[in-house]
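Give me the 3D structure for GTPase Era.
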Amino acid sequence: GNNGKKPFKSGFVAIVGRPNVGKSTLMNQVIGQKIAIMSDKPQTTRNKIHGVYTTDEMQIVFLDTPGIHKPNSKLGDYMVKSAEGALSEVDAVLFLTDVSEELGGGDRYIIEQLKKIQTPVFLVLNKIDKVHPEALLPVIEKYAKLHSFAEVIPVSALRGNNVTTLLDQLGRYLEAGPMYYPADQITDHPEQFVCAELIREKILQLTREEIPHSIAVEIESMGKGDKGIVNIGAVIYVERSSQKGIVIGKQGAMLKQVGKLAREDMERLLGSKIFLELWVKVKEDWRNRDSVLKSLGFRH
Ligand code: GDP
Ligand code: K
Ligand code: MG
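Predicted structure for GTPase Era (300 residues):
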């Protein structure tokens, strides 16, 4: 046999929850690196992102899904389909909630979706760093009335509290299986995708409400230049020319800041010097145009 060694386990785990509960933060904490962008704006994550966690005993491939919510545009529709589709393909689902906020319509809607699947669902109570420990039990009772959860685990995704417990518990739900990804690989997404997301993240962080949902970023070129410098050219799409003005800023100040912060993150990610060029283009109503969504990588 294998000298009494336990077999290697592997499986897929989806992270679901309404916007801003900390799904991307949790995945980044688990993976230990920044692959899914984070911000305090809802609908930050638009594509399904895989995060790969590998130890000597197991490999868990996490799917950080765009939030499940009622769609209001073609992009919203894509995001919802992508999240719901993920749930039936996985070995376990982490239903993330924010303990510092009331159980709301968004949570109930997701629980309704979770009732339709056979997959074990963990109730993960996130942001415990924001509440008194005594506040947890009443919250757990409220959720337990609505669904029968396989496990209930309080965590702080931001600080990392109890995240190893969560991983250990997940391990118990995995079966013997292969390594899907090499041990040193942390994401299935090409570098271009992460770079585009980093640019979008900076815009989300630096601009106000109106802009975030109106932008898309496309990497047009990426190649090695002189002295190991990587040249990256990216286009930021906005829906209206007034938004173009905001993204560029007074005398280009906003775009300059976006570029500086994104470049610093990219240099850490790629481990090389980056020369980043940004353009801003108006593409009216891109969120509702199928052809535009396709060319930006949103596929059904
Ligand atoms: P997502 O929309 O579910 O992916 O949420 P994000 O991961 O983008 O996080 C939304 C916001 O919540 C960000 O500002 C995070 O820093 C914050 N956040 C996430 N997890 C925690 C946590 O455990 N504690 C606290 N205090 N904040 C958190
Ligand atoms: K968010
Ligand atoms: Mg997210």
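The first helix runs from residue 23 to 31. Let me know if you want a second pass.
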